[in-house]
């Protein structure tokens, strides 16, 4: 196994992370990797070992309500400010003062929330296909299937579901890719039938906010994140969540931000693509 299992506690919940030890060499700041809305730590299964091989410890999280982390008793705690406090609890319990953050989609929002709480603990950040504003059509698409009941009888059904919900973003995937994808986002239930590996109630805050949830304005948070620290933005070239216009305005607001666009991929790049992988490793080479 290339990672060890780590657990920590926050709000009396037992939370989980994959802990990849950094290769020997000079001490470097660790990387904390945070996944998107319905995903989990397995999303970083390719990029995390590559980062660890450069000498950085990598902690890839299962945010509360996902993967091997506990489900929350109060679904209204499924919000970025609460997730950010969970991350701070991990850092405190693991003895991590500062870290570089790699956030995919919701993980980027958590990174912005964390910077608002304790800016001194965020040394640098990589945002994967997310910004301070999102295209309503992309978020509406995600909201349409998140938390909905699905009729899954076996792993072939699970792979087909993965293809239906993500096929437009990953048009180059074949049957084996979709089966591997399904194995990341589903787990085997007690009866042997695959079930989505997240609490369906993660959408409760979005439902409560209604249409206002579809147009968050986090520009002040983004400017706070960009100020005085290295920053990188990865965008899927066909993303329906991070439009070219939003990405352009982010680059204007943070001229020093490194930008890479992953061709032929939508929301969100898996970070195993050569363009993303190479850019991330280059960015991290001198990120503290």
Outline the structure in words:
There is one protein chain. The chain is α/β, with parallel strands linked by helices. The protein has helices at 47-52, 80-94, 106-117, 136-145, 155-166, 175-185, 204-209, 219-226, 244-253, 274-284; strands spanning 4-10, 13-20, 31-34, 58-62, 99-104, 122-128, 186-188, 194-196, 230-236, 258-262. The strands form two sheets. An eight-stranded mixed sheet has the order 1-2-4-3-5-6-9-10, with helices on both faces. Strands 7-8 form a two-stranded antiparallel ribbon. A hairpin with a 2-residue loop joins strand 1 and strand 2 (13-20). It is globular and about 50 Å long. The mean pLDDT is 94.
Sum this structure up briefly.
The protein has helices at 47-52, 80-94, 106-117, 136-145, 155-166, 175-185, 204-209, 219-226, 244-253, 274-284, and strands at 4-10, 13-20, 31-34, 58-62, 99-104, 122-128, 186-188, 194-196, 230-236, 258-262. With 288 residues, the protein is of the alpha/beta class.
Which helices and strands occur, and which strands form pairs?
Layout (H helix, E strand, L loop, with lengths): L3 E7 L2 E8 L10 E4 L12 H6 L5 E5 L17 H15 L4 E6 L1 H12 L4 E7 L7 H10 L9 H12 L8 H11 E3 L5 E3 L7 H6 L9 H8 L3 E7 L7 H10 L4 E5 L11 H11 L4
Parallel strand pairs: 3-4, 3-5, 5-6, 6-9, 9-10
Antiparallel strand pairs: 1-2, 2-4, 7-8
Helix pairs in contact: 2-3, 3-8, 5-6
């Amino acid at each position: 196994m290339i990672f060890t299992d780590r657990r920590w506690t926050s709000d009396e919940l037992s939370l989980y992370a994959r802990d990849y030890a950094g290769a020997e060499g000079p001490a470097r700041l660790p990387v904390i990797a945070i996944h998107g809305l319905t995903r989990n730590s397995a999303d970083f299964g390719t990029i995390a070992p590559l980062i660890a091989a450069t000498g950085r410890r990598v902690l890839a999280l299962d945010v509360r309500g996902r993967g091997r982390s506990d489900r929350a008793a109060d679904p209204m705690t499924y919000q970025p400010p609460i997730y950010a406090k969970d991350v701070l609890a991990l850092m405190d319990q693991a003895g991590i003062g500062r870290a570089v953050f790699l956030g995919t989609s919701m993980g980027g929002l958590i990174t912005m929330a964390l910077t608002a709480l304790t800016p001194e603990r965020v040394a640098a950040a990589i945002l994967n296909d997310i910004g301070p504003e999102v295209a309503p059509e992309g978020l509406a698409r995600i909201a349409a299937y998140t938390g909905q009941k699905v009729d899954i009888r076996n792993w072939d059904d699970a792979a087909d579901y993965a293809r239906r919900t993500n096929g437009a973003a990953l048009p180059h995937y074949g049957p084996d890719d979709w089966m591997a994808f399904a194995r990341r986002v589903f787990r085997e239930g007690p009866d042997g039938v695959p079930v989505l590996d997240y609490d369906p109630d993660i959408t409760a805050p979005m439902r409560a906010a209604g249409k206002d949830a579809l147009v968050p304005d986090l520009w002040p948070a983004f400017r706070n994140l960009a100020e005085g620290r290295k920053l990188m933005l990865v965008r899927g070239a066909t993303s329906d969540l991070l439009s070219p216009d939003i990405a352009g305005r982010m680059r204007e607001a943070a001229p020093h931000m490194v930008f890479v666009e992953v061709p032929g991929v939508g929301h969100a790049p898996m970070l195993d693509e050569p363009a993303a992988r190479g850019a991330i490793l280059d960015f991290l080479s001198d990120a503290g």
